[in-house]
Amino acid sequence: MTRLLQIAPVFFNNPNGPTIVLENIVAPLAELDFEIEVFTTRFEGDGPGGWLEKSRIRPLLINHGNNSLMEKEKILRQAIEKADLVHVHGLFGPLFVYCGCSLWWHDVPFVLTPHGGLEREALKKSGWRKRLALKTVLWPLLKNVAAIQFFTSNEQDHAVSCSQQADVYHIPNGVERTVPMSDDPDLVKEVIERRAQVKRVISYAGRLDTNHKGLDRFMEAVLPIRDRLQQLGIQFWIVGDYRSERDRELLAHRFEQLGKLVVLWGARSLAEKNRIISAAEVFFHLSRYEGMPLAVMEALQLGKPVIVTEATNVAGIVERTCCGWVTGPGAKAIRNTILNVAVMDEKILKAAGDRGKSDVRENYRWEVIGASIGRMYREVLGGVLQGRMTRKESGDE
Fold first, then answer.
1. 34, CA 20 to 30 Å: which among 129, 186, 321, 387?
2. What is the 3-state secondary structure (H, E, C) of 279-345?
3. What residue ranges define each of the domains in the chain, with the CATH number in brackets?
4. Is the pLDDT of residue 238 over 60?
């Protein structure tokens, strides 16, 4: 049994990327004889949730407020000492600072999945703080990483260089075998009634983050053609909550300007979101930087063609399978793409959506992704063992 320690911020009420990844790779890794522990200091939610309670995961430090810094460091240090391999999800925040320091003092190999955190555009947006952190407090973490898992080659191409000796793997996010779908009668009724009022729905799901998710670009693209889109019977359905009060201030007024062209559904569960998105014809995602947005993968699984920017890191899937459109980052390019899709034949849209659905279900199932991650772990452990034997034979140890 290989002892695997996962270090990640975990959210259960409103799951983030690392939470969803961990939830879905537990079963494949358990079948490969990995014994898993999860260390987190940003646990949020009413409880661990069914997947954690039923899995072979043992959560560590799941109560954020009741542990001092020294207690957290002690629990983490003890967990690392017992582990054969550590997998770190994310890069910035207090969790990763003392994670890096602990790994510095222990001869345990670890894998890093940055989840888009090393993207140049993300670091540019954050100002000097994250760039300084990379060169100082996070340096021990990056210097000793055995392998980095990027979701796509595009993510690697747009990331800053941080480790010369680390092996690099491209392993994408996945989709669930079944699609949870809400049967709440009130929601079903509302979706049907709203859908009957318009000819075509273009949807979005995710945080309402002005810069990161490119919603400012969306506004700039759509406001000048608001009346024309309304005449065509287009409506945009937006699922998600504001990332911050600042984003609320920036976006709320713009949404009001769009009037009936936009329906805001607020934050929803995955099953509720799927019910809403399933009634749309098209899904859009205009991020400036990403790891690999699960919202886009989930929309493709629902059979929805997608409008994406290259920075979403799913443009390769879209272009390879012809399951949507890759738009330029500017407002004019986005506007032209939206107008083209607004009048496109329904059969073309459905055919594109069917191609995307077939592709993600065949190639991006979590069982396949979990097995790929398991192989990465084995290769990292094998390479570390070989390196230790080589050093011992040469007299370096």
1. 387
2. CCCEEEECCCCCCCCHHHHHHHHCCCCEEEEHHHCCHHHHHHHCCEEEECCCHHHHHHHHHHHHCCC
3. 2-174+365-394 (3.40.50.2000), 185-363 (3.40.50.2000)
4. yes
